[in-house]
Amino acid sequence: IGNWQSEIARFAPSLRTLIAHPSAMSGKAFATLSAERIGDADVVITSYGSLIRQPWLLETRWSLVVLDEADAIKNPGARQTQTVKALKSRVRFALTGTPVENRLGDLWSLFDFICPGLLGSGKAFSRFVNRLEKDEHASYAPLRNLVQHYILRRLKSDKRIIADLPDK
Q1: Judging by beta carbons within 10 Å of its beta carbon (0-12, 13-18, 19+), is residue 84 exposed, middle or buried?
Q2: Distance between CA atoms of 83 and 164, rounded to whole angstroms?
Q3: What does the alpha-carbon distance between residue 74 and residue 109 come to, in Å, rounded to a whole number?
Q4: DSSP for the chain?
Q5: Residue 120, by phi and psi: left (phi above 0), alpha (psi -120 to 50) or beta?
Q6: What would the pLDDT profile of 57-115 be if each residue is shown by its tens digit?
Q7: 164: left (phi > 0), else alpha (psi -120 to 50), else beta?
Q8: Residue 76 in contact with residue 122, Cβ under 8 Å?
Q9: Within 13 Å and on the Cβ side, how many CA atoms surround 3?
Q10: d(CA 125, CA 146)
Q11: 1 with 23: CB under 8 angstroms?
Q12: Backbone phi, then psi, for 46, in 5-degree steps?
């Protein structure tokens, strides 16, 4: 939360930002937040846990939702993932350094958030992955071709892209 707050202050200081989190306001103020009370904010920053505790966040229609550390929604059956996927928005972005952490199903869950239906249902995607894993000659190319247009991959080693990150 603090990092997003400082980045907005640095790169977009004219944006009115509201931190909808108990660390930024009293418990009572946080508990009484509502869609009407955030009307003047350009950006609302919150946490995954706060989404669960503040139902009005799910009832609000957002122009844009950006998930940071989006690997937090890799488990499609988790309450947190289901809550996040219930957000109403026109546009959705997911930022993560690990789109596939343990299994290819992690990728399905991210895409089910940003572009529901693109990779089919969870069951259909599982069948597809099982076929790939069983056939040593199977190609991941169709999947790669489908998702590549939605992924921006940046490497720390490419100094033209991001010169201010330290080496690993």
Answers
A1: buried
A2: 35
A3: 5
A4: -HHHHHHHHHH-TTS-EEE-STTTS-HHHHHT--TGGGTT-SEEE--HHHHHH-HHHHHSEEEEEEESSGGGG--TTSHHHHHHHT-EEEEEEE--S-SSSSSTHHHHHHHHHHSTTTT--HHHHHHHHHHHHH-TT--SHHHHHHHGGG-----TT-TTT-TTSPP-
A5: left
A6: 998 999 999 999 999 999 999 999 999 999 999 999 999 988 888 888 889 999 999 99
A7: alpha
A8: yes
A9: 3
A10: 13
A11: yes
A12: -145, -170
Residue 40: count of CB within 10 angstroms of its CB: 7
As a whole number of angstroms, the distance between CA 29 and CA 20 comes to: 9
55 neighbors 87 (Cβ within 8 angstroms): no
Q: Which amino acid is at 48?
A: Y
How confident is the model over 21-48, as pLDDT tens digits? 999 988 888 888 888 878 889 999 999 9
- CA dihedral of residues 111, 112, 114, 118 (deg, nearest 10): 70
